[in-house]
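U., I forgot to send this yesterday:
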Amino acid sequence: MFEYSNGRFVQVSRIVAASIYNKPLNTVDENGEQRKEIRVAIEIDVAQRENNTLFGGPFTDTEAARLFILSIPNNSKI
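Result:
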């Protein structure tokens, strides 16, 4: 089992892919630009296609998100 979020787990054999993305927030920073959170989307193999994505994060930067993806055990399909 792999813990993708605090207290949430998935079978490693179900993981198909993972990617880093920026989630827009409903707030702006001091420069007036829209704030974003760095998150990881984990695609899993399930029968119901609409329920195939799990979300991890937020992360402090893209390197932290990348290290999270690399921490997924090697017997996954990534």
